[in-house]
Structure prediction request, 698 residues.
Amino acid sequence: MHGLRRLSALSGGLLPSSRLWIVAFLLPAALMAVLFLYYPLIFIVRMSFTEKDTFLSPGGPLYTITNYLDLTGRYAPNILVTIKLAGLATLVDLAFGFPFAYILIRKVRYRDLVRAIMVFPMFGALYIAFGMRFVLLPGGFLTPILQLLGVEGAQVLYGLPSTVFAMAIFTFPFMVMNIGAALSNLDPMLEEAATCLGARPWQTLARVILPLVRSGVIAGCLVCFGWNVGAFAEPLLLGSLEEQRSLAWTLYQRGVVQLDYGLSATMGVVLLALAFSVNYLSLRYSRGGLVE
Amino acid sequence: MKSQKIWLSLIGFGLLALSAACAPATPTATPQPTAPPVGETVHVSILNRDMTRDEIVAAIQEEGGLVVANWTYTANDELVNQFQKYVRDSYGVNITLTYEGSQAPSTYLTNLYAAQAAGNPPPYDVMAIEENYWADAVAHNAPEAYLPSGLIPNQALVLDQFQHVPTSIAFQSTAFPGVVYSRARAGWMTKLTDLADPRLRGRITLPLPGDITAGGVLVSLAAELGKDYRDPDQMKEVVDYVVDNLVPNALKLTTDSSEMQQLLRSGAVDAVVFWNSLARLEFLGGNADAGLLISPSGVFAVNGYLWIPKGAPHPVLAQIFINWRLSPEVQLPNDWPIDHGPWSEFHEGFLGPAYVDRIPAWFQADYYTYFPTLDQIQTQFKTLDWEAYNTGVDEWMDYYSERLGL
Prediction:
């Protein structure tokens, strides 16, 4: 800002004022956001109030609120399935992510390398789901181990555990990053002091570490939950009929396969609202806004 | 001295590679070009013009390429290469064929109607998808009237029962959703309702609700259960039967053919509900255990049809493509450098008598195990009343989704 003012002053008024510079810099991004994000979003919201495929029909859209009523009635179980899957995946992330983050921050020497490797799952949920499918399908490399355990791969494959596990793998880095960031700001001397004063490890964890990193834990949980609410590939490829009832997958079925654009747009709006709320809360938590 | 030898060897290899690249390709049977002799014209109805060969060539040059919407599994590189080569050899023009593959053809209609509603040109020049989608498009006033056309003389080779003049023509004659099963493990199956047998608990796959794969199966089941597919209430009874008796046996609801093949081959399931083509793909892939179950109540054909959306940006190339796709040399592409599996994906039954004598030698012994005779095609395949189907399908398919919680 100061630099811009100076530049403007040095130019003897030939250059526009700093405020204009800021507007000029922001304008392309704002235009892009309006044209390619908010404008289509308005369409989606409008479409959510139309009947079936009438939004695109030559006769023009027929407006209705039935889609929203359906969502709170017929599709309420689908919302619950979505929340259940996202919640369970978040719990798995937390259960494995916290110790992982702690060891990474406190014990691992080449943590940057580990962090870099850790982002692999973020390349795509689809890869993870396909990978798990090929590992678990009969003939996959886990088949002999599963056979030894008396388990049939295909039975393990299509169900809650494999779907939740794949979702958790995808969002695991988010959990570790958030908790890791909070742990990095925690002075190790505090843990040493607790130990010197006779606290057992679990007491140090419960009374010192957790209270001080809870903003990171909550932010991690919210980010993971927010991502998993929109999970599509995992229920599609790894889910049984129950997991296929997740909202993102149902949205695809209703919209793309059955051409019920109105209802699928409504599901999209609800998912968006859910993701927005969770994201907003996670941002506030990550800054400690709701904790202090 | 040593480096001289190396250089000589390299030059030798280079010359060999060059001569291999310049050698004439293996001669192949090529479909006849559809351009008229010099001085004559053909009538192109879609443009309502009589065109000379020069005008056709100029139109191809101007269009430069086309987009075809067709299933993913037929979006084969060889098909693209062969058509581009055909246009180059026949008209001396280099064009680009873009194949938009999808296993959910309804996405094409979504894109098409979206373009239509926005007043934009359609994103595709040729639609090559199931007959019900054409019927849906007719209700949306989307298909162009293009038949008969001087650019499509091969229309004459296709039986009347496979034509909807003036807006579409079939490129398949024997496609139907059915059951592909393991003869060894489920050889006792004789009808679709056998899918409800307790012996198949967790041992079958069923199609997801929504598209014509599920619709075709439900219609065939209706025939077996003595129900009328034209009556939505009776179809809801069929849906109830499926949800209460077949779904509990399903390991997975899927329309992913590669997943079904893997499950069937590995023995994880005994039967999969998909398209008849899967049985011969399995056979040609080395799985002689795969059998195709034909319902004793008959077969409703759900064939692929070729049509051109209104306002298609490349109408001349679209018609040339349709004519080429209907030619016997492309319907049974015996001269293409492809394996037997891909060959069987391009061919889905005879469209008329002109195609019968092209069964390749390698398939003559088994052809009629996986394909019907021309006589059977004309007498035993039932035709759906697509208007009645499309009128009721939304209601009972929605009921099916509701019962499944989807």
Q: What stands out?
A: Confidence is low (pLDDT under 50) at residues 12-28 of chain B. Residues 36 and 53 of chain B are 6 Å apart (CA to CA). Residues 41-174+303-371 of chain B form a domain with the D-Maltodextrin-Binding Protein; domain 2 fold (CATH 3.40.190.10).
